Amino acid sequence: MKRLELIFENEMGGNITLTLDNPVYPANPIAVSAAMDTIVAQNAFISSGGEIVAKKAARIVDRTVEEIEL
């Protein structure tokens, strides 16, 4: 399962990660960056360390789970 992780910085300098399941793949870097800019500009989320003040990174994480029959 793939996940899109959007990583932001809050007012206290901490990292805040927003995770979205099953993103469009491959991701469009321009669209991801624009969405992150909107989140920052609209103060869409507040963390325990304050408002989100900057975007730091974005990444696709692919996790494979294989069941073991017991």
Task: Describe, in plain words, how this protein is organized in 3D.
It is a single chain. Helices cover 19% and strands 44% of the residues. With 70 residues, the protein is an alpha+beta fold. The chain has a domain at 12-52. Strands 2-1-4-3 form a four-stranded antiparallel sheet, covered by helices on one side. The two termini are 23 Å apart. 7% of the residues are buried. The mean pLDDT is 94.
What would you call the shape? flat
Tell me roughly what share of residues is in helical segments.
Answer: 10-25%
Helix tally? 1
Largest sheet, strands/sense/barrel: 4 strands, antiparallel
Rg computed from alpha carbons, rounded to a whole number of angstroms: 14 Å
The tally of strands reads 4
Task: Show unreliable segments.
Answer: none
Order of helices and strands: EEHEE
- Beta-strand fraction estimate: 35-45%
The helix/strand class is alpha+beta
Q: What are the key terms here?
A:
alpha+beta; DUF2922; flat; single chain; 70 residues
List the helices and strands and how they pair.
Elements: E1 2-10, E2 15-21, H1 29-41, E3 46-47, E4 50-62
Antiparallel strand pairs: 1-2, 1-4, 3-4
Short description:
Helices cover 19% and strands 44% of the residues. It has one helix at residues 29-41, and strands at residues 2-10, 15-21, 46-47, 50-62. The chain has a four-stranded antiparallel sheet, covered by helices on one side.
